[in-house]
UniProtKB/TrEMBL annotation, chains A, B, C, D:
Top-level taxon in the UniProt lineage: Bacteria
Domain Gfo/Idh/MocA-like oxidoreductase N-terminal: 2-129
Species in which this protein is naturally found: Candidatus Marimicrobium litorale
Stored Gene3D superfamilies: Dihydrodipicolinate Reductase, domain 2 (3.30.360.10), NAD(P)-binding Rossmann-like Domain (3.40.50.720)
Lineage: Bacteria, Pseudomonadati, Pseudomonadota, Gammaproteobacteria, Cellvibrionales
Protein name listed in UniProt: Gfo/Idh/MocA family oxidoreductase
């Protein structure tokens, strides 16, 4: 694995590295950690990389790695830059013949996402997108239970993602993440929807197996001087007629990372909360609610394969992240060994989720600005 | 106290009676418990009332009680009928000179509520409305903390009220409450918003001290054959610029009575959930969240006066309800003794909340049917 | 009902009165609220009692009430004094022909309890003991589930009761309850075990249906100058071979009223916590834990009869207390009408629990002082 | 790092490997994964080790690795065998000049632990012991808060560790861990105390900074045919006069891995539960309880250095484990670079905890068999 972005002080780059390292199946072999070449070099050294595999720009990395012997060169690129670089780096990697694992949102805008999808299809290479929350074992179980019809036809979805870290002008401090996430030239058209609303939308679609078909939204920039939203609420309609509510916030003071999803069908309901990720509630009309737990013997194969320790040994965010990396690595291995991957390894978000996500972000912003109530997702 | 409605088998009538009895300050002295006179008589006998104080219709009750000596006759009427009778009974009571304590929603429609308000004003009598959830000590504390500015200017409100009891066709069973709540001739224009959405709206306004100024709503009748909504979601805007999300449901299978409210201001946030009513969370950007508990020595005077037992002795729904009755009774006592009531006793919803509630219900229904996004509350 | 004790400022007297009033089946008709006659008179007036039914000592109350017409006089005495008066008042009441509902612990010492039991048996009158926690619907459900064998043979019981209110020298303040609970002449041989350890022991025996047969204990007075324990831990052995741990504390700073019980059998486990009283956990080896809730349609008849509101409307301490009073009143009614009480109404602690409790307290104190490990309960 | 034990199908070996890999600072370079050489070879191959670095016995591993160039050979041995092999492997490693990271309990019996301590001291090499739970950030915070005097003098400790996985005869199945943990020739004198009770005792001492000085214990083998305890309860006295309760169980059906600790001092209390590891409660007599969270900005340096992601991104068991490995690796690095380690890196259990643990296990067993109540820890 080679990494683009994620130099000193970056949060998400370190998470990607830990997630990739956890299972001993993926080795970081090179990186372009920063466009500041000294910074990139220092980061690479701290990661025990040989200096010649530490690059000061991603294009050099693609060029050089391409020329290394197959056994030696990186097999895929992990992209952990600000949003506006996701597509350029992914494009360069695909052109150079490398698979891509990208942080979200996939691209700067929808148009880029569509172009990227075309390129992925054409290249025949693998593309993964780190919608981390789908990596949790019990999120997978939730999806499987609904797919198996245990809740009956889905009627109502409540998905939320409150955070509080941008409740004041963090962008005026040395909080680098705050700076770029609120900068339209780096983040795109949205801060709150682009960073976390898109996770919520993805989670709702992943768990229910439904597609959002229409939305009505109200986005706000509460903190003075912001050009991008730091809060938003969206009414949802799904393609089967289900209704939903999605709300996300970066100014809900005191909230940490509270993404959660509740789904109600004709026969039952379920609830999952990321801050208590090893618990999944199933709720029934006429019998006690059931508390499912990560690694419980009663879970399905997908959830079971996604846990690393026995029940009661909490698994967290890094493990969920690692599940995406592990699936992605297994797909690469299968591809390279000419076999087919374990079907369980296919459960990793990819280029279709990339397009859906960018659609969601753009439509949320457009709908918020409109006096018309409902806005339809186009078929892309 | 005399009661109208609440005969054998009714749920809310019994709650009103327990709430009124709890503190030993209010005595049930008469009632018209059912329009079926035998049923009313049986109910009265079970409640140890003398037969001559058990009436078969509310008008007779008003007439007869009016003619009893002041010391003996009821002082106020408690109305616990289906919605369509609230206003007629309240009107009759006020005309006969009795104070009124009414279940919610206050009336069948907004027009009735406006007429009732005029009558209350004109009569000089007291009118209380049992928005029960404002009776909880920690809901009062939440209001006081916000009023004192501890959270700073309010930005975001999330209020929800999921229930699951109408997820199938209960109205085809002998569930009397289901029958009338889904019958437009008894319930009014809404089931879900009329029964529980109105509680949520009231809770949001009570806790924040703000008024909802605009809304965008999407109501649904999920269960086949229903004429009224059994689910709904509403985007809110408040008069200070705050935004909110309100959602309520009667088809969220497995949910019990999950009304909750979360409020975020510039400086802090708070959270209260009715199913864990003795806990109030205060959340801060830079220090640990605090868990306030009913009867904690650090609470303000209103919350303190509203608790009956020491910390750790759970107080519940009936106690919250009893707080409304106690305040209302104290107001009556003060009125009759010519004094002014304890200021803490004034914290009981009344005729203004009645009008706000009916506005909310009607606007939620109208907005849902409209293609226009935002709908303003008129000044009433 | 007549009350002895519970004058102005007392905590538990007010709770008894609310519990008795809640269902509208018990009327407070007289009282000797304090040995200070002015204080008693003021208390009686505040409770709207006629002056002639407010007594300055309990013996006068017994004498006078005995002479009133049967229809008019009190039917039972509620005893809410400090411990040392429980037995004298109960004895006087029984001699005067009145049933007795007593706060716990039943008496000052075991010898008194045995004498009281003899008198109760001889008198043919009813005796109830307010081990409140057995009044919660889900505690009853727990007992029923175990009795039905759902957990298999019981192996392990963990019962605890942490409080923090005596962590400093409250007995030097005007906290009257602290003063008498730490005074050996009023409280008996124990503070912590006598006040709350005895509740824990009762709860363990009630829920499991087992008897404690042996114990090993370690009691401590942490706060300087105390003559009685303010903390203790006890190893338990039950008559079926099960083992247990009981610990209670009045110096666990920050704890409120945390009585809880966990029971494990060969087939399953259960857990109930008083501060979340409307939830009962059933735990299984091979399927998800189940969360039972007060008023759930799946509960047994005893729990069902003990709930007053639908699921999700929290019931608390006063309601649990009221369940004991309601059962006791139903027993009296049945007795006086010559019938047999509803079997469900028999579920109220009585004179046998009184004796068990006093044995527990005395043995806990004796065992703590001993170098010998195990101490057996004598058959009493 | 070289590993002894932890071949195919073993649980804890995989955890050690993930923990070591997480931060990219430790590389697995060799192993003797099983005494079955084919099994060891298969395990090594699955871990991508070169065949010549996969050994079929630990002695060969020590011998061969010793002869490799310093740059190439393992720097320390990770021991993940059943208990009876811990000391022999550690001894061989130390004799061969390798540092040792061992699973717990440290040895088969106390005598071995004392001998091992002598050897460690003599060798000047590093010895780490994976009492995992001390690796959690908030356990470290708890320790720091108590050390800083925030709770005042400690009075009461409640530590518990319920599990349910041995509630039936798992030792008759192919559950290898159950087989050896219940076999006195592999596990030592205790199953429940040796496997998990020792964690609880360590946690109590780590968090409070106190030493247990006396104990009274009652251990039981509930499941028929067992030679070792599967449950136990222990009364504790600490060297400062504090009292405690420790209970642990392998037959508490439905419990997962419920280690928790509560500590009460003169000024405040705290609570931490491993199944919700990112929350630490501080409890106060006169103000609301505080909910501290992993990575909260208000935490001390030790807890802060032990977290890898922002608040609200759950960290779990593997991360806690990785903290021990990271500290141990930092100590080795400092040693080898001739510097002193970061003081924060010293927070890893070592040979003193090894001796304390074996004392605890042996004393718990001896005390349980005795009729004498209290048993003192000897100075070792």
């Amino acid at each position: 694995m080679g990494m683009v972005g994620g130099g000193e002080g970056a949060f998400i780059g370190a998470v990607h590295r830990m997630a990739a390292a956890l299972d001993g199946e993926i080795e970081l072999v090179c990186g372009a950690f920063s466009s500041d070449s000294q910074r990139s070099a220092r980061s690479g050294a701290a990661l025990h990389l040989p200096p010649q595999r530490v690059y000061s720009d991603y294009q050099s990395m693609m060029n050089n790695e391409q020329q290394l012997p197959v056994q030696e060169r990186m097999q895929f690129v992990s992209i952990v830059t600000p949003n506006h670089l996701h597509a350029p780096v992914a494009t360069a990697a695909l052109h150079a013949g490398f698979h891509v694992m990208s942080d979200k949102p996939a691209t700067f805008d929808l148009q880029e996402a569509l172009a990227l999808r075309a390129l992925v299809r054409e290249s025949g290479l693998l593309y993964g997108l780190t919608h981390t929350y789908t990596g949790y074992p019990l999120v997978k179980e939730a999806r499987e239970r609904i797919a198996a019809g245990e809740l009956g036809a889905i009627r109502k979805v409540v998905v939320e993602y409150p955070q509080g870290w941008l409740a004041d002008r963090q962008e005026d401090t040395d909080n680098k993440q705050a700076v770029w996430r609120l900068d339209p030239t780096q983040a795109g058209v949205s801060s709150c929807m682009g960073d976390i609303g898109v996770h919520a939308a993805n989670l709702a679609e992943y768990v229910t197996g439904l597609n959002i078909s229409e939305m009505c939204s109200d986005l706000t920039a509460f903190v003075e001087g912001r050009k991008l939203d730091d809060d938003g609420a969206v009414l949802l309609r799904f393609d089967n007629g289900a209704r939903g509510v999605l709300h996300a916030s970066q100014v809900s003071v005191g909230e940490e990372n509270g993404i959660s999803v509740r789904v109600y069908g004709e026969l039952g309901g379920l609830e999952w909360r990321q801050e208590d990720p090893n618990t999944l509630w199933l709720k029934w009309p006429d019998r006690p609610a059931e508390r499912l737990r990560t690694a419980g013997g009663y879970l399905g194969p997908l959830a079971t394969a996604s846990a690393r320790t026995p029940m009661g040994h909490p698994e967290g965010y890094i493990e969920a992240f690692a599940n995406l990396y592990r699936s992605f690595a297994q797909q690469i291995q299968a591809r390279e060994s000419g076999g087919s991957p374990d079907p369980l390894a296919l459960d990793c978000p990819g280029i279709e989720e990339a397009v859906r996500g960018m659609q969601f972000i753009e439509l949320a912003v457009a709908a918020s600005a409109s006096d018309v109530k409902w806005h339809r997702f186009d078929k892309q």
